[in-house]
Amino acid sequence: xxxxxxxxxxxxxxxxxxxxxxxxxxxxxxxxxxxxxxxxxxxxxxxxxxxxxxxxxxxxxxxxxxxxxxxxxxxxxxxxxxxxxxxxxxxxxxxxxxxxxxxxxxxxxxxxxxxxxxxxxxxxxxxxxxxxxxxxxxxxxxxxxxxxxxxxxxxxxxxxxxxxxxxxxxxxxxxxxxxxxxxxxxxxxxxxxxxxxxxxxx
Length: 202
Known about the structure:
By secondary structure, the protein is of the alpha/beta class. The chain has helices at 8-45, 67-76, 118-132, 146-156, 182-198, and strands at 57-60, 82-86, 107-111, 136-142, 160-166.
């Protein structure tokens, strides 16, 4: 004969155990979220960046957006004799960055990296440095990109490197342009860091 007996104590224990597990899981997720948010302040919001210094080239990572204005300001202050700009090419085969067609008292080199990624730009810096004899570079990019870009560029470029941050006041969330928000950059840059770890080559 088969019997099954459930006591009030057993019936009460299982839900209580599930509740404790859910609470522990929620607490663990909350702790990870807090650590990630705090780490992101040092990695993305206020990363360790270098002050611009006199270099052979001011090398601007793409996209060629508002950071070009900061780049031109640095060029006017005499930080480098050459401005190199990473720029997409339009359907007519022309560089999209307006600076590429401008006349300035300094040399302007526009290039389209292959692939159009930070890794492609790092390889372009390596190749252009060999071509023009650059021994030092100020590499300019958005502040949330500085930490990851430093890792990638350092794998390819062996010259004197200064990572310069273009400081941007991003909103936490943006309904008009989600990519220009801290919420997006936290997610994107973190995922991109995983890619950097998986592919450690130049």
